[in-house]
Amino acid sequence: MREIEVIIDTEEIAAFFLKELVYRGYVPSEVELEELADITFEYLIEKCIIDEEIENP
Fold it and tell me: Which domain holds residue 30?
């Protein structure tokens, strides 16, 4: 299996959830969206789908 570089942005995840939830009739708060994005990111790490890289400031 080859390795590819994928950049996962929690803000992008939150925007995706907002679009999909509103489409389904839900209107989450900004805090709820951030929590969902963080949970999704942690899930992807836990399942070894992605590796977290910490950027050096």
Answer: 10-46
